[in-house]
Design brief:
CATH topology of the largest domain: UDP-n-acetylglucosamine1-carboxyvinyl-transferase, Chain
Enzyme class: transferase
Number of helices: 13
CATH architecture of the largest domain: Alpha-beta prism
Bound molecules: shikimate-3-phosphate, phosphoenolpyruvate
Family: Belongs to the EPSP synthase family.
Radius of gyration: 21 Å
EC number: 2.5.1.19
Subunit structure: Monomer.
CATH class of the largest domain: Alpha Beta
Number of domains: 2
Pathway: Metabolic intermediate biosynthesis; chorismate biosynthesis; chorismate from D-erythrose 4-phosphate and phosphoenolpyruvate: step 6/7
Structural class: alpha/beta
Length: about 425
């Protein structure tokens, strides 16, 4: 007997990572850039307000953000840049501030103040930028803007690729450009995304072995469409995986530049899902019984680690996720947060410094401690599709990247039920 598969569409907002990069590039571009379909969420609003506070105007209309760039860098004489909980803002904006003509304070929430900044600050200091930080190179910072001539820096991006992206994005505005010699690196697809977007705005940076070479140059202002967020889409793809239904997500497709789409095309596909990548949409259909992918190395796509952990109980054998040490220094200690959440629901897990393992089982209800981490909230919502009584202590923390998440998730369930 063939089973009835229910199909529905889920609308996922614009990519956080693409929106943040586009804002910074546009701020340094020659002219006015119009960003279509940007992500409107706490992280990107903080980013846009940070750019504006540095003296580079950003107008936010529905569906279009307009940025008036200045290849000479920020013009404000003084500013306080408030990054809220956003790693992209807290790591990218100090590099933009370094190019300015004033003295800037960069600060953020307690959650972000606890996250590491050291390698970025070390690289900025190698370039002669005046940076003062709190003990342990944490936020808040004072950055003294000035002419940055560039040259060569060494960088350890083994805890976060965001330090490397920050330097790459700012480098064309440096007199000699920049050679960045990379010691270690995580989240490589995010760096590829950075270089691809720089190319879209007219600057061609290249890899030479483990060095990135960015020539001096000027970004060209343009009209730019922000694609949907592949990390956010992972929750909707995972929902199809555990229910055996089909979800179609528009705004992602063959030309997608985000590494996290690999969660669908590689991880879910290896678990028995059918994954169809079209020109401007991706469809995922769950199997009758979810297969364990065995061990999954997630160093490149660690934002989707919790999505996989959240569906792992429904697989037919244990799931082991490895090489995700830097998940311990994100919005929460994510290895601890997701295994604690699953534990509250009766699922057995094991962890190590950079890995976790999840046993198959039927979760029961419980109150999940989200630890103000949007991805714990969204991931455990997926677990809740096949387990009654899973509640989040703070559902509103999804506002970091998708304020409308719960409404869209509920709409998908309703659409499946009606189809
Ligand atoms: O550059 C970016 O836009 C991002 C890089 C990744 O961080 P790490 O490089 O710290 O892993 C990712 O987790 C984050 O959500 C967004
Ligand atoms: C790690 C994340 O964000 P950021 O580092 O940009 O705060 C995330 O969105 O999962």
């Amino acid at each position: 007997m063939t089973r009835a598969i229910r199909q529905a569409t889920a609308r996922v907002p614009g990519s956080k990572s693409v929106t943040a990069r586009a804002l910074l590039i546009a701020a340094l571009a020659d002219g006015t850039t119009r960003l279509r379909e940007p992500l409107v969420a706490a992280d990107t609003v903080a980013f846009a307000e940070g750019v504006a506070s540095l003296g580079l105007p950003v107008t936010r209309d529905a569906g279009v953000w307009t940025v008036t760039g200045d290849p000479g860098g920020p013009s404000a004489a003084a500013a306080t840049v408030w990054c809220h909980d956003s790693g992209t803002a807290a790591r990218f904006l100090p590099a933009l501030a370094a190019l300015g003509r004033g003295e800037y304070v960069v600060d953020a929430s307690a959650q972000m103040r606890a996250r590491p900044m050291g390698p970025l600050l070390d690289a900025l200091r190698q370039l002669g930028v005046g940076v003062q930080a709190q003990e342990g190179d944490r936020l808040p910072l004072v950055v003294r803007g000035g002419r940055v001539s560039g040259g060569t820096v060494r960088l350890d991006a083994g805890v976060s690729s965001q330090y490397l992206t920050a330097l790459c994005l700012a480098a064309p505005a440096m007199e000699k450009g920049l050679r960045i010699e990379i010691e270690d690196i995580v989240s490589v697809p995010y760096v590829e995304l950075t270089l691809a977007m720089m190319r879209d705005f007219g600057v061609d940076a290249t890899w030479e072995g483990s060095t990135i070479v960015v020539p001096p140059g000027t970004y060209q202002a343009r009209e730019y469409r922000i694609e949907a967020d592949a990390s956010t889409a992972s929750y909707f793809f995972a929902a199809a995986a555990v229910t055996g239904n089909t979800v179609v997500v528009p705004g992602l497709g063959r030309h997608c530049v985000q590494g996290d789409l690999r969660f669908a095309t590689e991880v879910l596909a290896s678990m028995g899902c059918r994954v169809e990548v079209g020109a401007d949409e991706v469809a995922v259909t769950g199997p009758e019984r979810l297969r364990s992918p065995g061990e999954v190395v997630m160093r490149d796509i660690s934002d989707t680690m919790m999505t996989l952990a959240a569906i792992a109980p429904y697989a037919d054998a244990p799931v082991r996720i490895t090489d995700v040490a830097n998940c311990r220094v994100k919005e929460s200690d994510r290895i601890d947060a997701i295994t604690t959440a699953l534990g509250v629901c009766g699922i057995t897990t094991r962890t190590g410094p950079d890995w976790l393992e999840i046993e198959p089982g039927q979760p029961h209800g419980g109150v999940v401690e989200t630890r103000a981490d949007h991805r714990i909230a969204m991931s455990m919502s997926v677990t809740g599709l096949r387990a009654a009584g899973i509640e989040l202590d703070d559902p509103s923390c999804v506002a970091k990247t998708f304020p409308g998440f719960h409404e869209e998730f509920a709409a998908l369930r309703t659409a499946w039920a009606r189809s």
